[in-house]
Write a structure and sequence with these properties.
By secondary structure, the protein is of the alpha/beta class. It has a single domain, classed as NAD(P)-binding Rossmann-like Domain (Rossmann fold, 3-Layer(aba) Sandwich). The protein has seven helices and 15 strands. The structure holds flavin-adenine dinucleotide.
């Protein structure tokens, strides 16, 4: 079994670390940020292959992650629940490519004349902050270690490891380097929850996508999806627009208060996530396995990608 350094302590790095430890490897996670300062902590985070093209590998990763998160929800893992969801449709109502294996997926009639129908389904929702800490506990319980350190290069991780897993998200743009990686800004609001239990989406709202995801104590209201934008300073106009559109979709939210405005940079990648062994080993001979560029679907694909990384490393 190999000595593996996983660079990255977001959802991707930590799920990979768990699977690698379960496969019997010795694992050290190196992360520049604490869990709450990763992009993963910003995520809404509901299972849904947002803005990802149909692709056989992505379908399998998503299905595997859904199964694992559903299992964890049934076992009471902190921050993981199954959430009844509706997606409002303004055009094509055909069953989407990702629906295979999604519990209770069905087409319902439209709620009013603006829509052509709505998909109903039940999917995992994850409160990522508490979930990241739960993942760290799993890593440590399995004998792994976590180190807070910024590496200047992936080669630095390879000096005392047989394998390096690159789970650095957006930072892969410079570390690999990979010019296909780019930021996709997302702005969301966290609101008080006036009693909402169902997740709502309208991705084709002419003014921009809208979603409302209830959590145990609050509601995530979103949100923007802005490729190429990396300015995280607050924008009152966007806050007002998100709130107005979310209230129009879910009128009960008129009673909600804004608790905070949050923004994050999704690790987008032209061509989709990169999950493969680099044909070039690192200087010093360590193997390099990449797992980055999950865009707006890192939680949605997490455990499926982790399974594949563990298979690649073990092969
Ligand atoms: C507003 C918003 C809403 C979202 N909603 C959803 C959703 O509903 N469902 C969903 O599936 N996804 C959602 N996402 C996307 C999801 O958050 C990302 O796909 C996911 O978090 C990416 O995880 P990651 O582990 O690759 O990256 P990150 O969480 O960014 O982690 C990267 C890690 O690499 C480390 N690192 C980077 N550089 C170095 C270095 N030089 N040395 C050491 N460590 C380094 C960092 O410290 C960090 O630990 C959302 C994102 C946003 C912004």
């Amino acid at each position: 079994m190999a000595d593996v350094v996983v660079v990255g302590g977001g959802i991707i790095g930590l799920t990979c670390a768990v699977r690698l430890l379960e496969a019997g490897h010795r694992v050290r996670v190196v992360s520049a940020h604490p869990p709450e300062l990763t992009v993963s902590a910003v995520a809404a985070a509901v299972w849904y292959p947002t803005h990802i093209d149909a692709d056989d590998r992505v379908l399998v990763w998503g299905q595997q992650a859904l199964l694992e998160l559903a299992r964890q929800a049934s076992e009471g893992v902190p921050g993981v629940t199954m959430r009844s969801s509706r997606m409002l449709l303004r055009g094509d109502t055909a069953t989407p490519w990702w629906a295979q294996g999604v519990p209770e997926f069905r087409l319902e009639p439209p709620p009013d004349e603006r829509f052509t129908g709505e998909w109903r389904f039940t999917v995992p929702a994850v409160q990522t902050r508490s979930y990241l800490y739960w993942l760290i506990e799993q890593v440590e319980a399995l004998g792994g270690t976590i180190e807070r350190r910024r590496l200047d290069s992936l080669a630095e991780a390879g000096t005392d490891a047989g394998v390096v897993v690159n789970a650095t998200g957006l930072a892969a743009r410079e570390l690999v380097p990979d010019p296909a990686v780019h930021p996709i800004r997302g702005r969301i609001l966290v609101l008080t929850n006036p009693g909402i239990t169902v997740s709502h989406r309208d991705e084709d709202d002419p003014e921009g996508g809208v979603y409302v995801h209830p959590r145990s104590r609050d509601v995530v209201a979103g949100g923007t999806f802005e490729p190429g934008q990396d300015d995280l300073s607050p924008d009152a106009g966007v806050t007002d627009s998100i709130l107005r559109r979310c209230v129009a979709m879910v009128p009960e939210l008129a009673k909600a208060r804004v608790l905070r405005e949050v923004a994050g940079l999704r690790p987008g990648r032209h061509g989709g996530p990169r999950l493969e062994e680099d044909p070039e080993p690192l200087p010093g001979g360590a193997r390099l396995v990449h797992c980055y560029g999950h865009g707006g679907a890192g939680i949605t694909l997490s455990w499926g990608c982790a399974d594949e990384v563990a298979r690649l490393v073990t092969a």
